[in-house]
Design a protein that fits this description.
The chain is α+β, with helices and mostly antiparallel strands and 199 residues long. The chain has a single domain, classed as Gcn5-related N-acetyltransferase (GNAT) (Aminopeptidase, 3-Layer(aba) Sandwich), CATH 3.40.630.30. It has a seven-stranded mixed sheet, with helices on both faces. A hairpin with a 4-residue loop joins strand 6 and strand 7. The structure holds coenzyme A (COA). The site of coenzyme A has 21 residues, from helix 3, strand 4, helix 6 and helix 7. Coenzyme A (COA) binds next to helix 3, strand 4, helix 6 and helix 7.
């Protein structure tokens, strides 16, 4: 059990998505946190997600590499999507980001979206999800990359805290984005090094 998980709850379980029911739970949590479904004060203080997936897209991503979730009894406390480069055609909205990543020349994958259910925020679930990513994927990838809207300071703060660093800022048709990466091949000091997600 990681330090982060203990801070969240002893009952919390981290691991790979198990099937359609959990993919549906991801879509439900995503829908409740879409920028178009939140009021302005919530967007500013709590953060928001932009990309809307379909069940079909999540299934195709899942077939390539299962995403990682934090389970709290029968519900999801949070999720962090795994997008290997082969997922690139599935989500056209992310094309501007993938174009920028072509020059990286490293073994990377994209963390496609992270969301924590509101009652679980500020309780270590964020760190626990990324710790599970690192433990389950670091043997095949040197770094994890993602992007955060410049209008989401809460998410940016949390990402920098776990070890991400800014790679680039750019603007596309929807927003201003901060492209960030967490290099596992270089860092020694990582949060919660003793965790054991269920894989
Ligand atoms: C963004 C999100 C994943 C972060 O998870 P969380 O459990 O809330 O994160 P944590 O509490 O561990 O960390 C948040 C950090 O931001 C800080 N913070 C909180 N509100 C903030 C704000 N409005 N502006 C700047 N920093 C803020 C906190 O103090 C904390 O930093 P600290 O550890 O240095 O004190 C979660 O809030 C969420 O799911 N929001 C809705 C969806 C979303 O924004 N997803 C990310 C899309 S990129």
């Amino acid at each position: 059990m990681t330090q982060g998980v203990e801070r969240a709850s002893p009952a919390l379980e981290l691991g790979r998505v198990r099937g359609d029911l959990e993919l549906q739970q991801i879509l439900d949590l995503q829908r409740r946190n879409l920028v178009r479904n939140l009021d302005a004060p919530s967007v500013a203080a709590q953060g928001f997600v932009t990309v809307e997936h379909t069940l079909d897209v999540l299934r195709r991503m899942h077939d390539l590499e299962p995403s990682i979730v934090a389970r709290a009894s029968a519900s999801l406390a949070g999720y962090a999507l795994v997008m290997p480069v082969a997922c690139r055609p599935f989500v056209p909205a992310l094309e501007p980001m993938f174009q920028r990543l072509e020059k990286l020349g490293r073994r990377f994958y994209v963390m496609g979206q992270i969301c924590i259910d509101r009652p679980w925020r500020g309780r270590g679930v964020f760190d626990a999800l990324y710790q599970a990513h690192r433990e389950l994927l670091r043997d095949r990838y040197d770094l994890v990359v993602t992007e955060v809207s410049a209008r989401n300071p809460r998410s940016l703060r949390a990402h920098l805290r776990v070890g991400f660093q800014e790679l680039e800022r750019y603007r596309d048709a929807t927003d201003e984005w901060i492209l960030i990466g967490w290099d596992w091949s270089a860092s020694v000091n990582r949060p919660g090094a003793s965790g054991s997600p269920d894989g």
